[in-house]
Each structure stands twice: as C-alpha cells, then as structure tokens.
User: Which sequence fits this backbone?
C-alpha cells in the first residue's frame, strides 16, 4: 500500500505538490477534507479546526483570554484534544481505505505503523514569498515583510504542533525519506520525477 | 547541461548512488579520479590527497608534529592549499567537458556558477553501520562502535572541510535541492526514480 505524507514549509508549494502527485499516481489526496470532516463531526467551525490542527492547542484559546500565562479553561483544552483525537482517527481511516497522499496534519507521525513514505517540501525564502504573492486572493496586498513574518509564524506553529505528538523534529531531514527544494521550479514540472521516485520506493518498475 | 553533485553521509551509499545514477543517465561520474589526477599532477601520494581533500587542511600536517597548537610549517600549509586549488581546477575542467555526476569534494560549492543539481544522501545510523559491515574489505573486523565512531569523525571532517569554502552548511537541507534517505533501501532500487527526477529538474520530459 502506498501512503505518502507531505510536510511542508509555508509557501513552498507542498499542498500543490501533494495534489498533483496524487493525480499523477492515480490515488486520493486528503488535505482540507480532514478539517471539513472534523468540523462536521464535532460541530466546530472549520477555521477553528484548521487553527488547532495546524497550529497548537494553545491556538484554540479564545484571544479574549488575553493574559499569556493564564491557564486555559478545561473545556477549551478539551476541545483541542478532541480535535487532535478526531484528526488521528480520520487520518487512520483514510489510510485504511487504500493508497493516498495526505498533506500536513502530522500524518507522518499518526500513520507511523503504516510505514508511509514521508516527503518534506521546502524552498528558499525568496521563492516562498514570491509564491505567496502570485497566489494571493484578489484584493489581498500583503508586503513582503508581512508575508515573511506570517511564513515564519506558520512554520513555527507547525513545528510546535508536531512536537506534541513526536520526538522527531519538524523539518529535520532525518524525519523524512525525501526532502524536495522547490526553489525556482514550477511544482508541475517536478511531478513526473517524484512519481517515478515513489514507484521505485514501493518496488514498482 | 546536467551537472549533479553528490554530498553524502559516510555509509549512506552516496558514492554508489552517484555511480549508478550517472550510469542510468549515460553520463560521466567523477569520484576517485579527482584524487588520482591531483596526486599525479603534483607528485603527492593518493592517500595524502584523499586525506586533505576529504578532511581539512589540518589533516595534511604530518602526525609527527605532535603538539596540537604548533603552527604548521608554511610548506605543509601550502600543500593543503595546493591540493584545494588543484581540486577546484580539476572539478571545473570536468564540468566544462559536459554532463556529469561529481561525488564529494565540495563540488556543489566549486561549481556554484554552473548551477548544479545538488543531492544529499543520508541514512539512519543503523543502516549506515550495516552498510559498512556488509562492504568491509575481507579481513577487516571493526565493531559497530568502531564504525559509528569513524562515521562521526568522517562526517565531521567533511563538514569542516566544506566550511573552509562556503557559508552554507554541510548536511543542512537548505544547501541542497534534493535530500534522499537511503535507510532500508537498496541504492539500485532508487535509481530509476532519481534519474527521472533529474530529467524533470532539467526540463526533459
């Protein structure tokens, strides 16, 4: 069974890479579906789930708590764990259904026993900023500095979120089987090569 | 023009990967040839050149100097730089001759202006130790601990040697375009996928 997990730096094109790689391999890609399912099953708002599952449980505290060192109310803490548990179950269910690509959400950790092929997608800062600018929704005009700050924050959150589940470090090459630097390349141009690598990895000629 | 540089952890199979990848792509692979040429042109012993060009200039001091803090005699220091300069020239000459794979020797730094595709090959400690045991010359019986120690030392030397030429860090994924974890895999099984990736990288279908 082919299970490919994609971890990625913000702006590196990892999401697009996951989607296109799955298409090329003719298998499912799960990305936002995970958020949608959790939100639906637990009656949460999708953005709230995305916040928790991409950031860390602390991100689930309402910002009105204000004081940084305040202990989170038990209920909110619980919700964070609820989301994490739901995420784990949903990702495992996806994996059980057969070959797939899963983007983000610590799938490499959650599916450890399934021996997934774990990819990490990264790029240099300039490429990532340019990618964010090129893909910004119409009417959104963030400066390069704003984007760089956001990039740093999202990646920090991803690293922290991972740390809650695993000893291995987010973004450290030892954690992954293949790390792909997308700087200066169109994602679509790399897909046939990556698909060939995946097939080799799984012993297909 | 395809120029592929291979940097690698000791025992990860990077040398074999470079050789096989070049074969698959139908291009030259330069590895020990570099050492041989330097030795021949400058009348040095091959092992001496290998020591310098894989380690650092300090490795060129005769061990009889003994005292760690002694300044190296100018002549010996000069020889270290001579080897480094010869290496640079030889590697540039190889690159000018056309498509090739170059293993080690900071080729990624030396050939920066040629925009090579830089691969890093790594593996987990257990896989690397096992690979060393499997490939040890007949009659060599090093313990796992001995191998682990040697592995650490060689990689440390490689990192230090690189530091003399470049700001970017040996082994840090940012330094490379693709990082391949060979743990638990036969190198030969990964080659068709890696060759396909190389072709995509260079815009071939």
Assistant:
């Amino acid at each position: 069974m082919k299970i490919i997990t994609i971890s990625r730096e913000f702006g590196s094109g990892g999401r697009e890479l996951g989607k296109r790689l799955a298409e090329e391999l003719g298998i499912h890609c799960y990305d936002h579906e995970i958020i949608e399912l959790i939100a639906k099953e637990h009656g949460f708002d999708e953005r709230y789930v995305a916040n928790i599952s991409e950031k860390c449980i602390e991100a689930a505290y309402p910002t009105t708590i204000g004081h940084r060192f305040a202990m989170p109310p038990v209920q909110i803490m619980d919700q964070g764990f609820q989301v994490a548990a739901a995420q784990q179950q949903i990702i495992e269910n996806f994996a059980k259904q057969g070959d797939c690509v899963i983007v983000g959400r610590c799938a490499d950790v959650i599916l450890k026993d399934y021996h997934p092929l774990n990819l990490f997608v990264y790029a240099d800062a300039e490429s990532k900023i340019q990618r964010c600018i090129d893909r910004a929704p119409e009417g959104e005009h963030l400066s390069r500095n704003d984007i760089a700050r956001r990039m740093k924050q999202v990646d920090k959150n991803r690293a922290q979120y991972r740390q809650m589940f695993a000893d291995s470090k987010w973004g450290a090459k030892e954690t992954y089987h293949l790390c792909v630097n997308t700087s200066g390349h169109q994602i679509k141009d790399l897909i046939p090569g990556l698909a060939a690598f995946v097939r080799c990895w799984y012993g297909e000629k």
Notes: The longest strand of chain A covers residues 3-8. Residues 74-96 of chain A form the longest helix (23 residues). The two ends of chain A are 15 Å apart (CA to CA). Chain A has a mean pLDDT of 85.
